[in-house]
Amino acid sequence: MKYQHLFFDLDHTLWDFERSSGECLTEVYHTFGMAGLGISSLEDFIATYLRINYQLWREVERGEIPHGHIREQRFRRVLEEFGVKADIDFQPMEEAYLEMLPTKSYLIDGSLEVLDYARDRGYQLHILTNGFDVVQGKKMQSAGISDYFVHVVTNEKAQARKPDRRIFDYARQCAGAGCAESLMIGDNWEADILGAKAAGMDTVYYNPAENIFDVSPTHDIRHLRELTEIL
């Protein structure tokens, strides 16, 4: 067995962020009367939020903004993009969204099958995420996957965020794992794949969109079940 420790990203890799977020945003849209604010399309509201949220996370990963800036800015930016007056109080929307989001239990297709397969074969499983400690913990509990993992490493615990190699080094130190026996599995090219590669780890790029880059990951998969062919 080449690898002993598997480090999984959580959002978009195991936990279905798009489906979960979409449900929460639908509730926010109706609860806060977005149509009355001039946002006539629920679909446009959700798409705009997801795009802006993704942009903010990219800025965090590049070290351009602090982590807490996401919560402070994402709903403000969404409302501003739709021309909603700046004096609208966006913070209750953020609080309602964050309260609902971790209660969703949706997983990416194949997640449980892969986790069972890996655990049954003696791999040590860990989570390595840039998400917030409390929120990520609640997501895992809601989805029923907490017990699969030995260590849950967040940016708050490591005091560094992917792709910074310090979070990968911290995760391996927690697990007592060497680079050669460690495998990083994630969907984010810069944060998960390039970050882990720079830290000396092999990688599995969960790549359902079939993105192509100049540098190749150790493994490139379209569906999580393909992991069973690698492990």
Defining key terms:
231 residues; 6 strands; alpha/beta; DNA polymerase, domain 1; 2 domains
Explain this structure to me?
47% of the residues lie in helices and 12% in strands. With 231 residues, the protein is α/β, with parallel strands linked by helices. It has 2 domains: 5-16 and 107-230, Rossmann fold (3-Layer(aba) Sandwich); 17-103, Putative phosphatase, domain 2 (DNA polymerase, domain 1). Helix 6 links the parallel strand 2 (124-129) and strand 3. Helix 1 packs across helix 2 and helix 2 runs antiparallel to helix 3 (69-81). The model has no long low-confidence stretch (mean pLDDT 94).
Task: Outline the secondary-structure elements.
Layout: E1 5-8, H1 17-31, H2 42-61, H3 69-81, H4 91-100, H5 111-120, E2 124-129, H6 133-143, E3 151-154, H7 155-158, H8 165-175, E4 182-186, H9 189-198, E5 202-206, E6 219-221, H10 227-230
Parallel strand pairs: 1-2, 1-4, 2-3, 4-5, 5-6
Helix pairs in contact: 1-2, 1-4, 2-3
